Amino acid sequence: MTSYTSYQARYFAEQITLKRPQSSYDSLASAMSGVKVDLNPHQVDAALFAMKSPLSTGALMADEVGLGKTIEAGLVLAQYWAERKRHILLIVPAALRTQWRSELSEKFYIDSILMESTSFNKLKKEGYFNPFDIKNQVVICSYNFAARKADELRRIPWDLVIIDEAHRLRNVYKSNNVTGKRLKDALQGRKKLLLTATPLQNNLMELYGLVSLIDDHVFGDAKTFREMYVAVNNAELRNRNLRARLGSFCKRTLRKQVTEYVRYTRRHPILQEYTPTTSEEELYNFISDYLQTDKLFALPEGQRTLITMVLRKLLASSSFAIAGTLNSLISRLEELLKGVETDLDLQDYDTFDELNDEGDDISEEVKMTEEDLRHNREGILRELEQLQKFANLASNIKTNAKGDNLIFALNQGFDKIEGLGGQRKAVIFTESRRTQEYLFNLLSNNGYAGQIVFLNGMNNDDISKQIYADWKERHKNDGAISGSRQADMKSAIVEEFRSHACILIGTEAAAEGINLQFCSLVVNYDLPWNPQRIEQRIGRCHRYGQKNDVVVINFVNRKNAADRRVYELLAQKFRLFDGVFGSSDDVLGSIESGVDFEKRIAAIYQNCKTAEEIQTQFDQLQAELSEQIQEKMVRARQSILENFDEVVASRLKECETNTVASLDKFTQWIYYFFMIHGAERVEPLEQWRLKFTDGDIERVYNLKWKDAEQEGDTFLRREDPLYESWLAEAIEQPLPPAKIRFDHTHSERNISFLNAHPNLRGILSIDKLSYEGIGEEEHLVFSVITQDGTEMDDDTINGMLELPAVLLGNDVQENEALQTIRQQRLDLQRQQVEESNKQYYLEECDKLDAYSEDLKEGLQRELKELKKAITEKKKLFRASTSLPLSEMLTMKDEINKLELRQKKMQREIYAREDEIDDEKERLQEEVRRKLEGNCTIQNIMVIEFEVI
């Protein structure tokens, strides 16, 4: 067996655990070596950008849709996690909470908690004074919940806050933006990553709002920003100045710039139109008229808008979906007649609770008194009779025209997919669990029995339970089981879909947190009105890693004018169903919130009774969208936020080279460290596989996650208990000076430097310089003297230490020349740390200088306006010789008052400018104090070496 020494074990352990400068490739390689992510250069580039200055309070990550901002933020998060900085908060739209949780768990092996009312109150009861104070789980919560709990958020010393879909906060500068202001105040001074593909949509003030969330000391106040950058004549100069100011805060890469690294496939739409049966149409019209009634006792008044929207969606889904919900409405009225108010059961609509959470306009419910009941009894009875009639009609409908058309559409879709080279697999989305059940029976009776799996918010059916049990048995020893039934059930269903089933019928729960790149047929059986939700659905399949074009099937009711206009809007205005990328940033980002847009559509269904009214309302909505998607803003965004393609290409190429080099170095260190502890290299060698036997247990580790999955190996991560214990043991072992012989002749390594310098001898000292100040960083410092005076660089020394070696003894003599070189090398490393910190300091000073100049410019603008007014008044006075004396005296008096006001303003400006300068100096002094760090030196080893 190839031999190594304890000195090499210590060296590799130090390299593996070293706290490198956060913004270096080597530092990121440490965090990246244990994640299941395909690292694209633009993602690494973005992560390094976000961490480039330890003095920075954050960054705006603005890559186009589909480039993996989640991965970019995840890399930054993983870096913080590796550094034991674990007060981390994620604020995301409610619909994306579980997706983020799954991504962190599956790709980064980082645990998280969804903080919502239930979990918050549970932790309170368990004795947590502040449930947000969690150190070994990332906290994930929605915008609304975070805003409601702003006081609790404020008390936590967050190491990192990530805000997804951050364009929701772009109007934070406005006085009426309550949510934005609460979050900004609560998270003041915390390091923030804002993620959005649309940082600038309608107005340049949105950039001001987003940047002010990160740092209040970039631009002056909102009024000054508007005067300096919005109300200007020279847009080109303005854009150039803004670009310079935003350069250290905002990072944006375009999809067209990364096609060398990321392969994109296309979308192909299939429209399946259907005509409802007479009974279905009758049911639809009855319930639609019912929902437009002024007073309804079955719907709680405070939630009527929301519940009406849900009922319309269930009605459009299937007769089976609405039939069950009608029974819930009937039960509520029957209980109401007994004097009891009950909640409606709307859980058939999987995302009802989420919609409820998103709503800000739900009023306090007013309970019905006994007197109200007596007064309204006749009305309740009439409504009850009406609903029973609807329920009877619905229950008598045994088949749906849309369902019958599904069989034909599926066959058409499968033929198209096979022609494009894809598998015969389809994911069918519905908004109702009852519709899901209906489709299961329908498809089972039409040739797909035994080939269908379910995914919804519950998965309590017998098939899912069996799949889950089998999955747990298969994975009981490989670490795949997370302990969360919801997350593990999803994993089990997706695995079954990938391996055996050909159809997955999912509710909206299936559109969150799962990746289905192996499937390329998406069926929107029910079409959501929220374009962002549709994009999320299709994005389960049409995403990074998809090898085939994706086919999207949509259903439209020929007899429903509103349905047709909704589809037209989604297909033509939002361009969701065809092309390479789906909906563009310009379009999808033009809506502030998908939920709000959904409510606009719902209002049209609710308020329009004729086809003409429907057409008019949709025309108006389409016109509004056209106004929001402004060509002027598109041009401004390109000029301010986007780099030239050739600049990006050069940077990404450099990034790819450095990332691969850093990861290779790190992989080699881990490999040699395991070899020292008795591991054996196994075939295939190019996959970095290592076999280790611990007692009776033999385990094959793999340093590459994709190869590990393919071979069924254990993916090696820092958190492996055996690995961690070895690292701790190696670092704690004392190492006296020693003589070591390295064998280059018989090793698998071929180092050209050592070929050119045979029988090299010398003495090597390795020190660790640790810096604590604005951040923490460690550096290994090599000092070497060779017998023949040959100089060795760090890469050569690293190569030598990776060679097989034997320990010859410990009789190493003191070497004064080595001590001199050692001191020089340590001083040089200290200077390099100080030089880096000086650059950070100068960047902060430049930022604060520009900030204070903005404020002063704002003050001077007011004075200039006043001077201009005085000049105009004087001109009028000189031309007013024909006026009566009294009017001339009045005019002169006004001029005198304005001049007095000018003098007073001038004095106030001097005083205010002094205050601005004082504030700038105070802020710069704060920065300077942060730079006051402390360096410590630890000698790791001294070895006298010879290379044979």
From TrEMBL:
Coiled-coil spans in chain: 852-926
Stored InterPro entries: DEXDc_RapA (IPR057342), Helicase_ATP-bd (IPR014001), Helicase_C-like (IPR001650), P-loop_NTPase (IPR027417), SNF2-like_sf (IPR038718), SNF2/RAD54-like_C (IPR049730), SNF2_N (IPR000330)
Entry annotated with the keyword Coiled coil: yes
The entry's keywords: ATP-binding, Coiled coil, Helicase, Hydrolase, Nucleotide-binding
Domain of life: Bacteria
Ranges of residues in domain Helicase ATP-binding: 50-217
GO molecular function, one term: helicase activity
Helicase C-terminal domain ranges (all copies): 409-588
Protein's UniProt name: DEAD/DEAH box helicase
